[in-house]
Amino acid sequence: MDNLSSSRVDAWLLTGATGLVGRFMLAELLRAGHQAAVIVREKTTASMGARIEEALAVFEENSQFGRPRLLAGDLTKPGLGLSESDLEWLSERRLGVIHCAASIRFTAESPDGEPFLSNVAGTKYLLDVLAKCTVESFLYVSTAYVTSRASPDGSALIAGPRLETAVARGAIGGNDYESSKIVAEQMIADCEWIGKKTICRPSIIVGDSQSGYSSTFHGFYAPLKIGLEFVKRYGFNEAAGTWFRNQLGLNESDKKNFVPVDWVAKAIVRIALKPTLQGSVYHLTNPESTTCIDVQNAIQRSLAKFAEGNGPPTSSTGEFREQLGVYESYFNNDPVFDRKNTQAALPDLPCPKVDVRMLEMLGDYGIQANFGWPKPSAQIPPYAKMMLMLAHLPGVNYSEDAELLELNLLGNSAPSALHFVRIAGGWVPAKGGFRGEQVKYRLTTTAELLAGCISGTADTSDISHLVESGQLVFQGNPNTGRLVFINEWVQDLKLIAPLRS
After folding, report:
1. 281 near 143, Cβ under 8 Å?
2. If DSSP codes are grouped into helix, strand and coil, which group holds residue 77?
3. Peptide bond preceding 260: is omega within 30 degrees of 0, i.e. cis?
4. 330 Cα distance to chain centroid
5. Which secondary structure element, helix H or strand E, spans residue 406, and what is its range?
6. Which of 288, 257, 262 is nearest to 207 (CA)?
7. β-sheet bridge partners, residue 281
8. Measuring CA to CA, which residue among 208, 204, 175, 25 is closest to residue 100?
9. What is the four-CA torsion angle of 379, 384, 385, 389, rounded to 10 degrees?
10. Any residues with CB less than 8 A from the CB of 328 and at least 6 apart, and which?
11. What's the pLDDT tens digit per position in 91-129?
12. Reduced to 3 states, what is the DSSP secondary structure of residue 66?
């Protein structure tokens, strides 16, 4: 197994693709042109395709890349709930696996509930499925805190730096989340059929270091979120930041280890793709921890922008502490993490320093995004919108081996045809033909599709018979350029007839 190379991997199987780290990693893999498959749970609120499009939308403002193969499944079910055809697809390929899916619940709802259901049972079910596959490498995304506790109740810290070594048998987690990760790591270490085993252990993950973007809000965001509720209720003054820190029981000199999600994802994918880096343990931690006074100042600056007044009263101490109790183990003074393996593997990929300025930007983003709830409407790129529409049209079933899709649009100003090339399982716009090969599938006016470029003053009653027949008619202002046309047309479209299931 020592001579494995990335060229021997036919496809990358990724779990947790719709999570924060997972979506960044998926974008990294697809941007580099790798074939990927993702296990996505079906939900009544959004289709698998829509969830992946929403996850990737933030990465495609200036570039376009392919799409992964979607595997409808559930990590908490035996066999992952995968269909026979999907299991066969996996078994026919040499796989590289990045297991990122996890529950981050700190306190177990029951002995068999979360986080153990996803993190322990889910890992077992994944390993069981992979027993019938060819797995060249397996990378598990754990947490740097699996090696930090020593006392039976998980409160006392181990002395000295935490080493980049296998977790010790009988290790104790500071909470149920850490304990579940310890069990999963040991389960993977004992597995004999998954090729080279790599463990990546990030510390506390925060949002994107450049934009502040995040899709989930835990860790650093917890006191900010709770603090914002108190600010709205009681107001804010200069002493409020100190009050919040005191409720956490932190000293000004205590430190927390934060890592931006964009760096974590780049580091994991870099390690996964390079065979010589596989088979080790990596602490994806920050060489410069952030002092709690800096965390306090960043939270204070963000909160100060949203309220004024006298600040939270001391009578609210019990309520504040109760809300933060579930996160308390994460607000201990962080240990020092050995990162020699990480430094040697990624000398040209330094971790950004998470200082007051960055934390304030992250906090501002979290507040402005209302900490992700309600979830904003997916900002899907225009061409992806078109592909989602095509996928749901009645009577449209292009085959798996189709390499080119041609869409003919009606209307005086419309181009004669628009071409879409299949890349990594998805359709992306392409200029002209596809390497001169014969078109394997065409959508024309004879198919169950009619995309009409109708002027804004058109009488919609004239197309009522088309609507009744289940065809689609869009209204927009076309442009002469092919890709410009579809981008502007789809972006500004007004759906006259709803999609039919």
Report:
1. no
2. coil
3. no
4. 22
5. strand 404-407
6. 262
7. 199
8. 25
9. -150
10. 248, 249
11. 999 999 999 999 999 888 898 999 999 999 999 999 999
12. coil
Cα 288 to chain centroid, rounded: 25
More confident residue, 492 or 430: 430
Query: What are residue 138's DSSP bridge partners?
Result: 97, 197
Q: Which residue carries 């829509």 as its tokens?
A: 50
**Span 314-367, pLDDT tens digits:** 545 566 666 666 555 556 688 899 999 999 999 999 999 999 999 999 999 999
Provide the H-helix boundaries in 174-316: 176-190, 221-234, 240-248, 261-273, 292-304
Integer Cα distance of 262 and 31 in angstroms: 14
Rg (CA), the chain: 25
* Rounded distance between C-alpha atoms, residue 365 and residue 361, angstroms: 6
What secondary structure letter does DSSP report for 162? B
Burial class (CB in 10 A: 0-12, 13-18, 19+), 438: exposed
Q: Please tell me the distance from the alpha carbon of residue 225 to that of residue 222, in angstroms, as a whole number.
A: 5
Q: How big is the CA angle at 429 (ends 460 and 408), to the nearest 5 degrees? A: 40
E strand map for 69-121: 69-72, 94-99
Burial (CB < 10 A; 0-12, 13-18, 19+), residue 135, is: buried
Provide CB contacts within 8 A for 9, sequence distance 6+: 94, 95, 96, 136, 137
Distance CA 117, CA 111 (A): 9
Residue type for position 97: V
Look up tokens 């019990």; give the residue: 318
Tokens at 33, concatenated: 């042109």
More confident residue, 14 or 501: 14
Closest listed residue to residue 166, CA positions, set 119, 201, 194, 129: 201
Residue found under tokens 């065979």: 275
Number of residues assigned to the chain: 501
Q: How far apart are CA 165 and CA 80, in angstroms?
A: 30
> Would you give the distance in Å from CA 136 to the centre of its chain?
23
